[in-house]
Specification:
The chain has 206 residues and is of the alpha/beta class. It has a single domain, classed as Rossmann fold. It contains eight helices and six strands, in the order E-H-H-E-H-E-H-H-H-E-H-H-E-E. Strands 3-2-4-1-5-6 form a six-stranded mixed β-sheet. Strand 5 and strand 6 form a beta hairpin. Its EC number is 5.4.2.11. Catalyzes the interconversion of 2-phosphoglycerate and 3-phosphoglycerate. This is 2,3-bisphosphoglycerate-dependent phosphoglycerate mutase.
Length: 206
């Protein structure tokens, strides 16, 4: 019984590079992002992992990351389910803005609250708590059953949708999870117990 869950944040996107709030906007990967995704696939291959099913968001940067990983694993035909429940946090009115420009408009302290608080959403957008409210049920009903039945599952998604999952898996508070940085293109490998609790966690950094 494998009961393995792998989480990986998409490789660097064009808007990550430009320091823009991205959210549900849909920029592509940079050249570095492509290399990060391929490297993630190589590290998963070196760990001997092959997947039974894959989940990703409705956004192309996560989908392309997953495809590049599949290519490295020789699993191009892997069943893949795409759902906006796994999309990045919606940054609302901040989407598309340079982070420095946002600070100039609303002030350093206010932008910091929007970015790093657990439950304060930006105008027209989602807080991390709001993001979790769509991610957690999707995980419980769609993803977790594949893992608990003994499968090996990969989820390629985004910084904040994955933070919400990690918060639940690791039993972290809202304050603890917002302080955690999630590197692009670095797989996190969970092994679950039969009762869905975490047996082990390994970060496959380069």
């Amino acid at each position: 019984m494998s009961r393995t869950l792998v989480l990986v944040r998409h490789g660097q996107s064009d808007w990550n590079l430009k320091n823009l709030f991205t959210g549900w906007r849909d920029p592509d990967l940079t050249e570095l992002g492509v290399e990060e995704a391929k490297a993630a696939g190589q590290r998963l291959k070196a760990a001997g992992l092959q997947f039974d099913i894959a989940f990703t968001s409705a956004l192309s940067r996560a989908q392309r990351t997953l495809k590049l990983i599949q290519g490295e694993l020789g699993q191009e035909g892997l069943e893949t389910i795409r759902d906006q429940a796994l999309n990045e946090r919606d940054y609302g009115d901040l989407s598309g803005l340079n982070k420095d420009d946002a600070r100039a408009k609303w002030g350093e302290d206010q932008v910091h609250v929007w970015r790093r608080s657990y439950d304060v959403p930006p105008p027209g957008g989602e807080s991390l708590k709001d993001t979790g409210a769509r991610v957690w049920p999707y995980y419980i009903h769609r993803i977790q059953p594949h893992v608990l039945s003994g499968g090996t599952v990969i989820v390629a998604a985004h910084g904040n949708s994955l933070r919400a999952l990690i918060m639940a898996l690791d039993g972290l508070t809202g304050e603890e999870i917002v302080a955690q940085e999630l590197a692009t293109g670095v797989p996190i490998v969970y092994k679950l117990n039969a009762d869905s609790t975490v047996a082990s966690k390994e970060v496959l950094a380069g």
